[in-house]
Amino acid sequence: MSNVTVVGLQWGDEGKGKIVDLLSEQADIVVRFQGGNNAGHTLVVNDITYKLSLLPSGIVRKGKLSVIGNGVVIDPWSLVDEIERIGKLGVSITPQNLIIADNACLILPLHRDLDALREENAGPKARIGTLKRGIGPAYEDKVGRRAIRACDLGEKTTLQNKVERLLIHHNSLRKGLGAKEIDTQELLESLYKIASKILPYVKPAWKYLYNAKGQNKKILFEGAQGAMLDIEHGTYPYVTSSNTYAGQAAVGSGIGVGSIGYILGLTKAYTTRVGGGPFPTEQSNSVGKLLQEKGNEFGTVSGRSRRCGWLDACMLRQTVIKEGVQGIALTKIDVLDSLKEIKICVGYKLDGKKIDYYPSSQIAQAKVEPIYETMAGWQTKTQGLRDFDALPKAAIRYIKRIEELLGVPVVIISTSPEREDTIVIKNPYATDNTENLSAHSALLGRTLADASR
Ligand code: IMP
């Protein structure tokens, strides 16, 4: 298996930065394929903390190529700032180690404005709790076929025509929302200015990936956000505006669907969520507080405190099946170290009836009550453990139960933010794909009810 796709299975913040960094050691190329600078991946390498938003996590390693794929929406000003900020930490970023897909769409200041205006004008219940980075409005313009793309930065006439067209749409919206209209020339001038800093990286990224495939290079696809924030499969409308599912790695980078490789899904040993929206296993009590404090659950990008709760195996299993996940990386197990009892949600009750899946209706999503299984905690330190056999028995039981409930193996366990504090049971790059395919079809042969017993 020469490629691996890493995706979050919850509402983001599963610890993808660390796992991607770990795997990027074996990869030649790291690719972002969706989202934008709403992502926040923290890497701790040799005591230096790197907070990345848009740059692929491979950027901190020498000799790796980082690709920002066409499925990503790019705020060029924010990207230039990030390149400078990470550069100051001693990482050299040049067109030799960073490529931006020429067909990727841009986030403009007007998208940020619109994101903020909408959130501010929404009532507390309708507010999505976005990061106000303009992600949603930028994807709207992409689908509306009026977005500015990275390649347009090199063509003055195209840029002028497209900006004029874009402003007809945005200025009427702005008028309606009581915001100042945007001047065509002013926007064009600022785009011309930033273009010179971005264009050296802008290339047909798909070609580099195709060539890399021919040379048997290893590619790592780095997902951002998480499955429950997926625009189609998540807790709509409390979602982000991209497809966060693994399949998007192919469309969002221009590599064939058969080339995304082993699909590694990440979940914390508990659940968190930032922003609004349903969260059946949320614990607004001392357990939630403990998880938040021990897990340092505060947003990388926004600094907002994250809502915390028990692991939702029912929701996770649904995602594993729908997304085709082949193995699990379980992160932050050490956060549970002091708990006497640990709960796992194995199904829900809806209007008094048991159900074994998470429904799509907004009312039902908010109404379901979790059915919990309670397990004994281990009340000893797992933090920093690097050997599976060193884990306390109760922690092993918890991990095994997660495997049973999800129907796929836990292949990586993370026991602290440090790169070395990781138990690798099975290296996703060393996995035989046929083995995974048969494991997956065996899983699909079982019913959801079997797993939640
Ligand atoms: P947007 O992506 O900024 O439009 O925000 C939409 C929703 O996705 C909000 O609830 C955000 O809090 C959430 N979100 C976006 N990016 C991330 C992330 O990287 N981690 C966790 N939540 C995120």
From TrEMBL:
Record InterPro entries: Adenylosuccin_syn_GTP-bd, Adenylosuccin_syn_Lys_AS, Adenylosuccinate_synth_dom1, Adenylosuccinate_synth_dom2, Adenylosuccinate_synth_dom3, Adenylosuccinate_synthetase, P-loop_NTPase
Active site: 13 (proton acceptor), 41 (proton donor), 142
GO cellular component, one term: cytoplasm
Positions that bind substrate: 300-306
Highest taxon, organism lineage: Bacteria
BP-aspect Gene Ontology terms: 'de novo' AMP biosynthetic process; IMP metabolic process
Cofactor(s) of this protein: Mg(2+)
Binding-site positions, GTP: 12-18, 40-42, 306, 332-334, 414-416
Binding site for Mg(2+): 13, 40
Residues engaged in binding IMP: 13-16, 38-41, 145, 225, 240, 304
Record note on cofactor: Binds 1 Mg(2+) ion per subunit.
Keywords: Cytoplasm, GTP-binding, Ligase, Magnesium, Metal-binding, Nucleotide-binding, Purine biosynthesis
Function as written in the Swiss-Prot or TrEMBL entry: Plays an important role in the de novo pathway of purine nucleotide biosynthesis. Catalyzes the first committed step in the biosynthesis of AMP from IMP.
Name the UniProt record assigns to this protein: Adenylosuccinate synthetase
Native source species: candidate division Kazan bacterium
